[in-house]
Amino acid sequence: MLAPVTSLARFAGIERTFHGALIDARHTTGPGRGGLRKHDPPERLEWAGETPVERAGRPLLEEQRPTCVRLGLALHHGGTRPTPPPRVHYRHPVLGFLVLLLLAGAILVAVGTAMLIRGLRYPPRKTAGVALARGHAADPADLGLDAQPLDLRLAHGHTSPAWLLHGQAPQGPTVVVCHGFGDSRYGAMAAWAPRVLPHANTVLVYDNRGQGDATAPTADGSLGEADDLRAVLGQLLDLHPPATEHGIVLYGYSMGANTVLRAAAALHQHDDPAPLHGLIADSPYRTWDGPVRRLFRHNHWPRWPIVPLAGLLLRMKSRWRDIADVADSLPPGLPVLIISTAGDELVDPADPAAIADAAEQAGCEVDHLALPHGHHLAAYELDEDAYREALTRFFARAAAR
User: Fold this and answer.
1) Other CB atoms closer than 10 Å to residue 282's CB: what's the count?
2) pTM as predicted
3) What distance, in Å, lies between the first and last C-alpha atoms of the chain?
4) What is the pLDDT of residue 46?
5) What is the chain's alpha carbon radius of gyration, rounded to the nearest angstrom?
6) Shortest CA distance to 341 belongs to which of 355, 329, 328, 351?
């Protein structure tokens, strides 16, 4: 096995002493393996005859370095063993993989949190073009309704277009409809206002901040929207005197339900002169992340740590107050109608029940229409008769207030 190497050494005039076997003769001296072969040029062996001092002063050629490493020759010159070239050792490959895995996870969490925050702050705007594309009415005249267009100011100086729809009850209250997340006055006018028009003198529909055609750029999860609603009520009393005479009823659905609950509690706490005669909340929820968590669970998305991190960045923990605690601050004697469905995919059915209990403890006249099945905001479609009967009872109590 070593005879070819020895003959080459003698041919080059170099004396060698081998103090060990080859690392693996089969993998180092075979054809194409990088070992010394019979016809290799002498330049590949010339460094072996150098002294250690000479060897230290001249680096190995790239073609020489792997040769001496693979052969593993212990060469002596003058009784001194030359230092072999350093080897690179790769340590802890599993640790490196874990670092990359953690880095990828951190990037995914950051991207997911940013997308959730953007989705909450910038909901899809349902404008006239969107309403027409979906086959919905884009003007009250399309539904045969008589309406007065308004331009309302929101709490922080932004504006919101609105319609004051004429109702069918001259002695009825003015109903202010507050739409939910991702909706606008177009949806409120087409689907929700007709339910209360038979009981109302007028019905006001407007765009919440960050939605529809409102000039405010971002939504605020019913927190800033409640301040906007109070500002709208103040203007309504000046623009529409019958609202002062016959009273106001707030009607909100989904996020709008939380908005009207917050606004009603604030009106009571600040002794606001707005004559509030009742409140209707369809599918309210207690916590800001309740619908978000249920939506993530429904789509099999990871909730932690994206949802808590988004709440921290939005300062929801310090700003949000449990809606059940808000309901506990409603004015005593206020007629309240809570509507919910047991099959709601976004709202825990226990939330509307807890809110109704809190409002009842506050002294309100509470009626809770809870249907045993149905998805989010589907109570009217599931049982229209029960819905209409609940509205009739509610407006009778509101008129007696």
Assistant:
1) 27
2) 0.78
3) 110
4) 46
5) 39
6) 351
Considering only CA atoms, which of 250, 273, 177, 258 is closest in space to residue 221? 258
- Work out the angle between the directed axes of helices 255-269 and 223-239 (0-180°, nearest 10): 70
pLDDT at residue 97 in the model = 86
Q: What residue type is 401 in one-letter code? A: R
Distances (CA, A) of 161 to 115, 150, 157, 334: 28, 6, 13, 29
Neighbours of 343 (CB within 10 A): 13
d(CA 55, CA 270) in angstroms, rounded, equals 92
Both tokens of residue 192?
């929700």
Q: Are 225 and 209 in contact (CB under 8 A)?
A: yes
pLDDT of residue 242: 87
Which of 330, 394, 390, 338 lies closest to 359, judged by CA? Answer: 330
Report the length, in residues, of the chain: 401
CA neighbor of 183 nearest in space, from 140, 134, 142, 230: 134
Q: What span, in angstroms and rounded, lies between the C-alpha atoms of 156 and 219?
A: 13
Q: What angle do CA 178, 184, 189 make, to 5 degrees?
A: 75
Cβ atoms within 10 A of the Cβ of 168, count?
11
Reference 281, options 338, 209, 326; nearest CA is 338
Closest CA to 69 of 38, 37, 28: 28
Q: Strands 174-178 and 365-371: what pairing? A: unpaired
Q: Token pair of 159, please? A: 């504006």
> What is d(CA 280, CA 273) in angstroms, rounded to the nearest whole number?
20
Give the H or E element holding residue 278.
strand 276-282
Q: Measure the CA–CA gap between 73 and 51, rounded to whole angstroms.
A: 16
Distances (CA, A) of 11 to 8, 50, 197: 5, 16, 111
Distance (Å, whole) CA 67 – CA 40: 11
**Helix (H), strand (E) at residue 250:** strand 248-253
* Pair of tokens at residue 137: 């009415």
- What distances in angstroms separate CA 136 from CA 75, 139, 183, 205, one per listed residue? 91, 9, 12, 16
Residue 176 parent element (H or E): strand 174-178
DSSP of 82-135: PPPPP------HHHHHHHHHHHHHHHHHHHHHHHHHHHHHSPPP--HHHHHHTT
Query: How do residues 108-152 score in pLDDT, each as one tens digit?
Result: 999 999 999 999 999 999 999 999 999 999 999 999 999 999 999
SS3 content of the chain, % helix, strand, coil (to 5): 45, 15, 40
